Amino acid sequence: MHKTCFFVAICAHTAFSLALAQTTAPTPAPADTAAQSPAAQPAPATPTAAAPAAPAAPAALPTPAITGPLANLPPAVFDAGPFGKLAVNGFLSGMGMLQTNHVPGDDSNQATLSSGQVFIQKTDGWFQFYVQAGAYNIPALGVPYLATDKTITDLFGPVPVAFVKLQAAKNTSIMIGALPTLIGAEYTFTFENMNIARGLLWNQENAVNRGIQLNQTMGKVTASVSWNDGFYSNRYTWLSGSLAYANGPHAVSFVAGGNLGQTRFQTYATPVQNNGSIYNLIYAYTKGPWIIQPYLQYTDVPTNAAIGVAKGASTTGGAVLLSYAFKHGFSLPVRCEYISSSGSAAQNAVNLMFGPGSAGTSFTVTPTFQAGGFFLRGDVSLAHASGYTPGYVFGPTGTNNNQLRAMAEIGFVFGSNIVEKKP
Q: Are 208 and 81 in contact (CB under 8 A)?
């Protein structure tokens, strides 16, 4: 995915402890059994069979992955004949945006369909699959707005994610197709993340890979390795992998990926970063009302004059994403991040941000409300550039180093709530 868009797993767990105080009823005084005939005495009670346990409540599926605080619903399930039972979910949402210092071709206000997608999946048996189809917008801080229709045509098409999954063993699976990236802490689509718009570190990452991925779970450790086309390049020279350890509310992941080849090929979805490598160290804490996720990131695009990179450059960044859930469906996510790039214009270094050697800081707050299948949230963010090259930042001449944005998103989640309940 071209993440020249600016500004990178699992829903939050809640643990409850309930103490039940039990009291013993007083024992009644014994009756005068000598005055009763055997016929007058009550017959022994017939043992009552234990009531069957109530079936477990349906749960939301892990795909698509959603960080929170937004939550998916359990799916609607239907019989698809030879395919067996299929699960269906969907998101439908629209968003509006106001911004300062927009660049030529952009506007100070925008409104669009942010997501109109359906997810169909088969989750049992050795042969499984997942298809995500529809319209989407991928807003990112600090870069021009891209209309939804152009987002679809310039990025991943109307079916951005689709793969088959071969469940080779209980803890081993193989996925083949258009896959969500292993890289980064933020996901691609608006509903998957704490904030409406993506952040600065995400801007250096890929989003959808076409390739093959092997997953293995070993107790508290999960490992994945993927051979893919990196930034949607259709050139299968990328190797990426992740290693995660989870223990209760804590999880630590190391993720890495890189291009083992080089190519001049570039599009909106395939930037110069496709010729580089990327590394993440991610920690996540999810317990009660809290989601806390700090992470570090390093990327590198090496010198290669043969493909037009006269002088390579790297980025180093860190971010903290956190969310606190209040009562009655309200929550407050916050994101803070900083990233800097190496090189200089004098060295003719490749530009990875706001010009060679530039840096960026952002702060985003996203008050959120969800009640069942309805959600409403707002994004207020500030992106600040430093060490920039004039012409590469904000405003009509590219010389304003700050951009303030206010966004709102309203939408609906579909799943089991669209199935008529039996009386």
A: no
